[in-house]
C-alpha cells in the first residue's frame, strides 16, 4: 500500500477553470515570488560524498531539479565535502553518474563546498570579530556535558569569555596546524539556555589533520555542516534550500548564520518529509556491512535500492520519476511499498519493451512427426501493444525447449498445458498433442514427446477447433544459453512484519535466503548481441535487463527487473 499525505497540498482555481494542486513548497515559492523576496528560483542537490545514493536521494534530486525547471530557474549540483574523514572520490563519481542518469542537468554548475573553504574561514573570522564566536579547549565529551539536555539548560563554556584578539590568534594557530585533532574547536556564541539544543553554542570548526580529496593538505581545520551549508547556499545564490524534516530543528541555526554574516539575499530553508520504503535497507552502514560480509555483490547489487543498484537491475529514470511523483511532496511522513515502485517500471516497460521467448527451467520437447533436420522461420510480433516495434522471424525445428512447469504427467484439474493426450498451442507455431515422456533413473522428466498438426501453422487450425493452453518455446538448434537471475526482496518480509522491524534483537538484518535464485536457461536467437542495460519482456516470465557488470557476449546474464503480475492498485 502506498500512503500519501495531502495535508500540505491545496487546490487553486485558475481562470481557465482548471484545478491545479500546489504542494506546500510551491505555495512558499509562489508567495516569495509574488512578494519580491526573490525574482527567480535557484535550487541545489548537496550530497556528502560518503556513500552511494539511494531511492530516497532520488526524491531530493528530482524535487530540486523539477522545481527549478517548473519556475524557469537554475539547479546546482554541489558536493558537501567538508568532512574528509568519510569522503572519497569513488563516491563523488558514483553520485555524478546517478544524478546524470536521473536526468537532472546541472549544466555548468558543478560545485564543491571545499572550494569555499577560504570564504568559510573568513566568515568564521567575521563572527569572531563581531564577538559571535570563540575558541574552546573543551573536549567533545565536555562539550556534550556542558550542553545540557532537553529538560536542563546548558552551562557556559569556561572559554567563552576570551577576548576577540585572543580568539583570532588561537583560530589562526588552529589553521596553522599548531594543535592536535580535538584539542581546540571554534564555537558560535548564541545561547546556552536556548530550548533548541542546536543553538547552545554549536561547534562550527574543528581540527582534523587529514588530506582532503579536493584540497589535499591545504587545510587542517574544517567547518561543521551546520555552519558550512548556509554559507554554501548563500554564495551560490540559492533561493530555496530544500532538505528533509530532521533539519527542521537546525533551521534557527541556518537562519542565524546567514543573518550574522549579513548576506544581502539570504536563502530560505524548507523541510519536507523523507520517502520511506517498507522492508527495505537504505542505511549506509548496513549496506556497507552487507558488502563487506559478501552478502551482496557490491553497492550496486540489484537487490539493493541504491540508485546504482536500481539502474543495474533495469529500472528506468522515467519509472523512478513517476514513483517520486506518486509519493508526492509533504510534511507528513509516508511509507511506500516496493510494489509501488514495481508498478511504475511495469507501466514504463509494458509498451516499450520487446517481448521475446526465453526458457528459464528447460526440458526438451521432441515433435516426433516433424521432419528431422528441417528448420523453418515463423513470424512473430515483437509487442502486441506497440506496432512500432515491428516483428521478427523465429527459428522452429523438431527439438524445442519448453518450461518444465508446462508439462505434468498427472495434472490437477484446470491444468491446460502439456500432459499425455492433451493438445496445446505452441506460441506463433503449431498445435501439438502430448504423447508421453522419458525419465532418468531418479524419475525426473528429461524429454517430452508430442506430435504436431501441420495444418495449424501460425497457431490456428483450419477446422476451427480450440485449445485452452498456449506455451512458449525456444528451438534447441539456435538456442542461446544464458544465466538468468531472479530477485526477491533482500529482507525476509514475513519475519520483518512479524517483528515490526527489518532488524533482529542483535541489530542484524532478517535476510531472505531466496533473495537471489540463479537459473541457466535458453533464449531465442534474437537476443544475440543484446547490450548492457537493454530491457526485454520474457514472454510469460517478466521484464529483464542485461546485467551491465557481469554479462558478456560469450556468457550473457539477465536480471529480472520485475515479474509480470502485481497486486498493487493505484490509490484513488
Quick tags:
Rossmann fold; Glutamyl-tRNA Synthetase, domain 2; Ribosomal Protein L25, Chain P; 3 domains; 7-stranded mixed sheet; 13 helices; 24% strand; elongated
CATH architecture name of the largest domain: 3-Layer(aba) Sandwich
Topology, number of strands: 29
Main sheet properties: 7 strands, mixed
Domain unit count:
3
Give the N-to-C terminal Cα separation. Answer: 12 Å
Low-confidence stretches: 1-19
The named CATH superfamily of the largest domain: HUPs
Strand percentage: 15-25%
Helical content band: 25-40%
Global mean pLDDT: 93
- CATH class categorisation of the largest domain: Alpha Beta
CATH domain topology of the largest domain = Rossmann fold
Q: Supply the number of helical segments.
A: 13
Radius of gyration: 31 Å
Shape: elongated
In the sheet with the most strands, the strands line up as: 14-27-28-29-25-26-15
Output the structural class. alpha/beta
